[in-house]
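Before a colleague's protein record goes any further, I have to sign it off. What it holds is a sequence and that sequence's fold in token form. Would you go through it and say whether the fold makes sense for this chain? The record follows directly below this note.
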Amino acid sequence: MELEEVIQKRIRDDGPLPLASYVELALYHPTLGYYSRAGQRSGQSGDFFTSVDLGPSFGEMLAVQFNEMWNQLGTERFDLVEAGAGNGRLTRDILSAASKQTPAFYAAIDVHLVERSSVARDLQPNTLGNHTTKLSSAGGTIPPHINGVIFANELLDAFPPHVLVMTDDGLREVYVDTESDGTFVERLGPVSSQRVQKHIDTHGVVLEPGWRAEVTPDAVDWVRQATNSLNRGFLLLIDYGHEARELYSATHATGTLTTYSKHHAETADFSTKSWLACPGSKDITSHVDITCVRETAESNGANTLGILDQTYFLIGLGIGTTTNRDTGNFSEIKKRLAVKSLILPGGLGSTQKVMVFGKNVGQPQLTGLSYQMRIT
């Protein structure tokens, strides 16, 4: 059975689905979902680019920051927990850099890879290669009692969002229904659950008539669980996002829900039904409510250490300072181009936000946070 048929049957049996339920099936159905059918979705042959796809420089900079975090903790061992780890490429790059640059830190690392897709998990040992001996656990949830760092690159934007629309008759939620020919279509209905309503009330989400926006209680739950899993250490999240005052404003009045297929982006709104077609064949994302993430981490015992554009985070860590600008070596040229892509405004450098929280670590001065709250 195709995923389209699975969803159509679910609608026939249960009625129109909150869009979050449709996205959950489209992305994470155990055998037919977008992330369940392949171990890697990004890169030149995939549907979108992430910082990891630009070579090892991103992982090298994270290795620098994580080494400093280990020194701040002063512990013998250091838990390195990547959530949404995919096939493990980013952790591999971090380990490769640490093994060369800071052998003592490398020896202290215990790796934990957290990934929902069993297909991606099966690829992790091969991706890690010689670093497989560092792997302490691999599974679908964050282990408890972490002393070190929990980090995630572009994870929160992939949690299924509930889409809200303010109408003349009040706040409504977007559902997915089928037309007579089986085509998926949006319908408006009441807010789907008390959980969603509580999120709206707790985080003060206010929309003007005609505005459309996403809220993602699942992402909030994940931040809460991650923070609670930390005994002592850091939570570092990198993602597309905005403070609530901007996310729920005229600037984003049509919402941020977007699909990606073969590097083509399509905004999801009432003007087209095409983005709902072929579930399981495309990525579906929405921007992160940074205010909500910060408040959730802080309410669960963490301190906000810094929130800034990826550009300033990587510059603070000294990205690009080791490349040789005087050589015509192809690998050096390629690395310099990758560095530019990681930090240039308008690209990953300004659209990606780095959020760093600490728990039971005080207020350490981290090199990656030299620019503190520098955010555009």
